[in-house]
């Protein structure tokens, strides 16, 4: 059966949407003659994607039922890959688990992003105005997860604690940035305006097209398990990714240099607190690491050495 329309929804944040582009590539291979329609909260991730017929924000779907569902030959693909048992057991990459759930063979684990020429020109102009040398530019993402809707440090801390242990401590991020600058690199931090800035480090967060063009323009990057590592993989830009409680085997890419602190606690890569199957204490509070989060206690000197080498392979630091 070849349906006229294949409707796919990703249901997640920016990083998950970027991941979903690899799933859509497999959907396109499985339904080569169908028109693929994507429902996503981050439609700009799919700008210019030739595999997609239409992209909609779930909050702006006027006449969607009449145009694509009612009396139409369609398939609706919706699932939650974070609940796949092989992913939860850390035996299958999330992209493969997602494809398995919706019943299509996985043909690639590489996301796809298509950067517009106009965005490239805008970033070239931005770098020229800021005096940024492309060969010296190192992008940095040290914090991720849910962004607070207001400039509130306490709220930001609470939201971060409710997520996987992914963001590295600010003082370590500061040490990494300072050490990179000492080596002649120009550091720009990708982070929301409501996330706490690093001292002496430029920050930027704009619409996704411009951010993708900036990632495409950098020499390399140092990041965490968040959207930048997925976008960089899509753009064939290798860099250094610092992993805490999550696992690069099921959420990362071999092209990057994936650093972990090794077996520094009794539960390495514990995947807690799980943002989908929430892990709470008896009093209802979010789970808190009993080992003081040693998996995030990276040594700045070792990280900077790895960033400057930019040799993609998984290893411990």
Describe the structure in brief:
This protein has 317 residues and is of the alpha/beta class. The protein contains eleven helices and eleven strands.
The CATH topology annotation of the largest domain reads as Rossmann fold
Order of helices and strands: EHEEHEHHHEHHEEHEHEHEHE
Query: How many DSSP helices?
Result: 11
| Spatial sequence of strands, sheet with the most strands | 7-6-5-8-9-10-11
Strand runs, count:
11
Residue-averaged pLDDT, rounded?
A: 89
Distance between the termini: 51 Å
CATH structural class of the largest domain: Alpha Beta
CATH architecture of the largest domain: 3-Layer(aba) Sandwich
Label the overall shape.
globular
Q: Into which percentage range does the β-strand content fall?
A: 5-15%
Secondary structural class: alpha/beta
Please identify which CATH superfamily of the largest domain we are dealing with.
Answer: Glycogen Phosphorylase B
Largest beta-sheet characterization: 7 strands, parallel
Domain tally: 2
Helix content: 25-40%
In the predicted model, the low-confidence regions spanning at least 5 consecutive residues are: none
Radius of gyration: 20 Å
Protein described:
By secondary structure, the chain is an alpha/beta fold. It has two domains: 5-102, no CATH class; 119-316, Glycogen Phosphorylase B (Rossmann fold, 3-Layer(aba) Sandwich). The chain is 33% helix and 14% strand. The chain has eleven helices and eleven strands. The strands form two sheets. A seven-stranded parallel β-sheet has the order 7-6-5-8-9-10-11, sandwiched between helices. Strands 3-2-1-4 form a four-stranded parallel β-sheet, covered by helices on one side. Helix 11 (300-309) links the parallel strand 10 (257-260) and strand 11 (315-316). Helix 7 packs across helix 11. The radius of gyration is 20 Å and the shape is globular. It starts with a strand and ends with a strand. The mean pLDDT is 89.
